[in-house]
Amino acid sequence: MYDRLRTWVLQVMRVPHEPAPPFGAPGSIRVFRAGKNLYRLRLARWGVTQLLALAGIIFWVTVFVQVEMEVRERHEAKQARINPKESRNFEEYLEKVGATDPAASAAPESKAKVKHRARINGWAGFKLMLVQTALWLPPWAFPVLWALKIAGIVAYLAQLPFTYLLVRFDYELRWYMVTDRSLRIRYGVWKVNESTMSFANLQQVEVQQGPLQRLLGLADLHVQSAGGGGDHDPRHGQTEDSLHTGIFHSVDNATEIRDLILERLRHFRQAGLGDPDDHHDHPAAATPESPADTLAAARELLEEARALRATVS
Fold it and tell me: Residue by residue, what is the 3-state secondary structure of 50-93?
């Protein structure tokens, strides 16, 4: 069921399932994925967010029901017709509507001359404000508010599978490919980001691990190419790829990937293969000369040097 839904959603969003391998020998390609704890972490964040949103919905529905019941009771008891102007002060009005703390408003006889202010209970005062606001609303306001509240609940329930799929797709659509000559990184759902880096331009390979990543057994592998020193510094807290920096984000084998890249980079430089783009522009230079060809060229140069020496003599 999930596989069919996943295929359908990716087709609708026009997201390719798997990137093409980068330049290099077909047998040398290695594919790496983000660690499973990254998915668990983001799923936990998603769950906490949804629980907080649900708690907010329950709170405001409860408040709305209580305010509506209070307004109806006041209308039935004709308490809503109390005019604040008929009271001598605001404290007397609060006592009439029952929003004060009687113990706080009662003053001892010895302190009768001391001016005492009635204290508004926090929850009662908040509910009083909502009730008094609701008393000014027309009769059709509560059905409209109920319709909006129901629409909000429906929208909350409808977004649950959609946001869950986004969290899962963000984890599953992270691809890290390494060949003997280049590497390719692709990530993203709404905005697909894909970058390819040649070993000919690679300068630095660095593993970074924060406290939370260390707890989860994850790490980031930063790969920097030539010209990237000014526009991106991983130590400044940037986590997204720049034009000259690729990030293997939250992998559980960052050390293994680093050693693999460094080993292949060493072989690449020892072989003197150069930039892959140069091989596409000059097919004849794609295949290095064999030792026999080199020896034959050396002998030819030696014979020419001997012939030149004999001529000079």
Answer: HHHHHHHHHHHHHHHHHHHHHHHHHHHHCHHHCCHHHCCCHHHH
Q: Which amino acid is at 207?
A: V
pTM over 0.90: no
Low-confidence ranges of the chain (pLDDT < 50): 80, 107, 109-116, 118, 230-239, 279-288
Task: Tell me the three state secondary structure of residue 177.
Answer: strand
Tell me the three state secondary structure of residue 199. Answer: coil
Question: Does residue 213 contact residue 220 with C-beta atoms inside 8 Å?
Answer: yes
- Beta-bridged to residue 31, according to DSSP, are 177
CATH number for the domain formed by residue range(s) 2-34+174-272 = 2.30.29
Per-residue pLDDT reduced to its tens digit, 2-26: 888 888 888 888 887 788 889 888 8
Q: Taking a C-beta distance cutoff of 8 angstroms, is the pair 232, 244 a contact?
A: yes
C-alpha–C-alpha distance, residues 199 and 260, integer Å? 12
Return d(Cα 250, Cα 176) in angstroms, integer: 11
Boundaries of every domain in the chain? 2-34+174-272, 45-104+118-169
Q: Where are the alpha helices (DSSP H) in 173-253?
A: 211-216
What DSSP assignment string belongs to 15-63? --SSPPP-SS-GGG-EEE---HHHHHHHHHHHHHHHHHHHHHHHHHHHH
